[in-house]
Fold:
Amino acid sequence: MVEFDEVSRRFSDTLALDSVSFTVRQGEFFSIIGPSGSGKTTTVRMIAGLEAPTVGTVKLFGKDVSAVPPHRRGTPMVFQSYALFPHLNIRDNVAYGLRMRGVAKPERRNRADDLLGLVGLEGLGDRRSEQLSGGQQQRVALARAIATEPRVVLLDEALGALDAALRIEMQVELKRLQKELACTFIHVTHDQSEAIAMADRILVLQGGRLEQVGTPAEVFARPKTRFVAAFVGQNNLMDATSMGITGDGLHKIHTPLGEFLAKESDGHPIVREVAARGKPAVYGTIKEGYNMWFHGIVLSAESPNYDAAVAYANFWHEGFAPAEVANQGYMTPTPSVAQPALEGADSPDAGVNAWDYWYNGGGRDRGSVDDIASKAAWWWQFPDESEYLESRWQDFVAA
Amino acid sequence: MVAPALLSIAIGLAVPLGAIVLFSFWTGTSVGMHSDLTASNYTNILTGGTFWDTVGWTLQVLVIVLTCSTIIGVLVAYFAARVVTIEWVRTALVFLLFVPFVVSYVIRMITWIPLFGRAGLLNTALTEAGVLDEPSDLFLYTSPSMMTALVFLYVAFIIGPTFFKLRQLDEDLLRAAQNLGASPFRTFWSVELPLARPGIVVGWIFVSVMILSDFATERIIGGGLSPLLAGTVWRRAELLLWPQASAQAVALVLITLTIAAGLLRFAQLERDL
Structure:
């Protein structure tokens, strides 16, 4: 329904978007992520018509919209600054789109009040935006965007200005709204955990180039590029050197953490064996003519059992519920099993008790497990991820 | 520390104003005044028709000039703030706005005469082009010519604040308006204009105060036939009718303050300050 075909955008001497192609499907929650300056805001503005491509075509509902001005596109957007009209009260803000469509005053007021109810702001219609908190303003902006019953809603860093707790609350709410309205949400963020938590599919941009498009599981567990591995998983990256291929077709890889054997699988080489117990997850480049990426779970050589999975600690990113992972059987969240000996490892998080890492966020404040676990049913979006890891595990056990 | 400021306010403002208020209660004679207190200067103003006619005429001129200069001023401000996208062109335009003010007000007024007089540039051009059969008297020494002059004299005071208000405006609001289905014109009408209102009204206050105190334009360009309020005060003073002139001056100050206060309320500046 939204289609980018080799779209580039040049601002004087910088290329904000470099030949990007992707398609957003009907009813999808589509997240665009990337660091600042990656072109994600330019991308979403192009959908809204607030920015025009230098080269390439943008299609909306199958039609080239190059010549369609923003006010005829029907792609309402929630801005990071909320962009509520300060001279209008909340009700008139929400009703603005309807007013532009010529809906009569009593009708659009009723509709605005209904929408305010939908986003949990009943009775605040007469207030002015400056009298509302950031979270409330955010909801108003959302209500205003969905007032005209659009088929696609754009969210440009819509949750960026909220504090952490509120952001998680709004993520749940956005997801609920999107399901209820059965409309396509295109969501821009620099926060990968937000994208992973909400998106059906994620587009990763960097420096105006498309790095990867895929489900959160794909992007997270099978990053196509080193950038995606680093940005999405916040993994420890290591450079690795191939020491050649062994007799049974395995790559022998040398890393600062020791030597590994890797087997290519689905085009993604995975680490098969580990030299030391409890190392963090490993990503790296295989040099020597291969120049490919590998990633995997580092397992203990001495006792190949699940406690080795503590190494996931670095693999999983915040936003994943450890309790859920435990239920999947991949980790027993007891301090006794989670005592990896990481001495000697020269990764940034080396030496951190993995359970500690999860529980306390590796030194970063992340809230209690109970708190996260209460959201777990919703957070956990990787039915296929467990299968993926299971199959990797079976590979390992079989070998 | 405040003392010098208070002193200068006392000497520069309170004393002359106080004197005028005092004189307005003195008794006028044919060539001056003496200090017998009387309220007759005010009763004459309040009961006499001419004063109220002048007030009415002045307000009429004020409304017409404000209307015209608002239309022109907002258009120019919008052009400079939105249509011009090159930064240095915009800066140059803002600079040009203030260039007339380096020239004396009287000079600016007098330059109208060779342009719009009977033998002026405009009349010559129009007659030679065959638009007019003979030179028109309408362009100079008439009320419309006076109002036109006032508009062009003071329109910069509307352009300035409006321009800055428009530039200050969060561009996301414009994007949001368009994004929600507003055409560029409706964006202007429903978002930019209401949000630029404080700027426009500040301009109105400037222009109103200046028109209410203007006594020269009406003479130089208007021909002196239909004086504005400040002009009548001037004329009384010229005739050495000090108490009458003072009473009218006090009335003028009160009218000016009322208009300025009303406009300030309308601007809702407290939301911006």
Remarks:
- The mean pLDDT of chain A is 68.
- The CA atoms of residues 233 and 317 of chain A lie 6 Å apart.
- Residues 235-399 of chain A form one domain.
